[in-house]
Amino acid sequence: MKLLFSIICIFGLSSACLPAFGAFPERECEKKLIRDRLPEIYAAEGDSTPVQKVDRETQKEMILAKLIEELREFRETPTAEEMADLREVLYAMQILFGLSEEEVERIQLEKRERKGSFLEGFAIQVNPPK
To answer: What is the pLDDT of residue 29?
Structure first.
């Protein structure tokens, strides 16, 4: 839930929720997750950037930080390339968290049928004034 509210905050629906749920700093940590082929690309180009393979639990945490990074980039530049990056992160999250593509798609379509999509632009106040 904290991630959801932080995503909402990043996209500007309610800046009031930032203190309540915690903002994501520009850099979560000194390391960031990179695409799988980048180490071999770095090596072929003579780049000596140190690369470390992380354990699965760390990878799960880092993919969530990567989602935030890619969301920020898409917000700044809403292009097909940035959307492709977001989709790649979502694909990796699905695999890392052991979620079946068929099940996720089935639930997505059921929810769309029952509740609709997000295309018409309806919004609610997240933290209504008292």
So the answer is: 54
